[in-house]
Every structure is written in structure tokens, then in C-alpha cells.
Amino acid sequence: MFIQKNTSSDPVKKLFEVQTLRKDFLSVLCAQKVSVTIFLMSGIKLQGCIEQFSDDCLILRKDGIVQILYQHAISSIMPVTPFTAPSFSSSAFLDSSETHD
């Protein structure tokens, strides 16, 4: 569950934390070659493994077919199988000891 602990109103700091969380998440998925389902803003569902990513886009591969996706078009990324992830560096967004009402 995602809980925002930091109540700072600094939008630059919040943007940095979100980008770091996304980068950490994508790094783990890419390094472990985890199969993912990606839902686009248009509702289209894509599946494959994330090969590489940058701030703007990512490369998705499945059965030898390679697609480049712009990150602003992605609604969500869901791992198909469970994976082991180290603690993400943006711990301001993650806390297992608190619950969200």
C-alpha cells in the first residue's frame, strides 16, 4: 500500500520522489526479467518483459517482437509473477507499518 508520509508542499521534491520510485521499480523488473502486463491510458493491454527504460520511454519485448512505449501513455504496470524487490529508495511513499483508511 502506498502512503505518502512527507507532507511537504514542495512540488519539485514530490516529483523527484515519484521519479525515483518509478526508476527503482522499473530497474528491478528489468534486471530480473519479470514478465509484466502494461495497461495504456487508451485501455490497451500489452505483455512482455521490460528490456530497457529511460525517463521518457521503455522497451517491451515478447516473442522476439520489440515495442517502444512512451511512459506518459502508460496507465499501470503489473508484474505477471511475484518477484523479489529490495527496499525502494523512495521510502516516503512506502511503509508497511501504516494502513490507509
Describe this structure in words.
This protein has 101 residues and is of the alpha+beta class. It has a domain at 33-81: SH3 type barrels (Roll). It is built from one helix and five strands; from the N terminus they run αβββββ. It has one helix at 11-31; strands at 35-40, 45-53, 57-62, 65-70, 74-79. The chain has a five-stranded antiparallel β-sheet. Strand 3 and strand 4 form a beta hairpin.
Q: Which descriptors apply to this entry?
A:
single chain, alpha+beta, SH3 type barrels, five-stranded antiparallel β-sheet, 21% helix, globular, disordered C terminus, RNA-binding protein Hfq, Hfq, stress response, RNA binding, RNA-binding
Task: List strands and helices in order, with pairings.
Elements: H1 11-31, E1 35-40, E2 45-53, E3 57-62, E4 65-70, E5 74-79
Antiparallel strand pairs: 1-2, 1-5, 2-3, 3-4
DSSP summary, beta strand count: 5
Number of helices: 1
Radius of gyration: 15 Å
What's the CATH class of the domain at 33-81, please? Answer: Mainly Beta
**Helicity range:** 10-25%
User: In whole angstroms, how far apart are the ends?
Assistant: 11 Å
* Main structural class: alpha+beta
- DSSP strand content: 25-35%
Which strands sit side by side, in order, in the main sheet? 4-3-2-1-5
| Uncertain spans | 90-101
Question: What does the overall shape look like?
Answer: globular
Assembly annotation: single chain
What is the CATH topology classification name of the domain at 33-81? SH3 type barrels
What is the level-2 CATH architecture name of the domain at 33-81?
Answer: Roll
Largest sheet: 5 strands, antiparallel
Mean pLDDT: 80
Q: In sequence order, what are the helices and strands, one letter per element?
A: HEEEEE
Domain Sm: 23-83
GO biological process, one term: regulation of translation, ncRNA-mediated
GO molecular function: RNA binding
Pfam family, one: Hfq
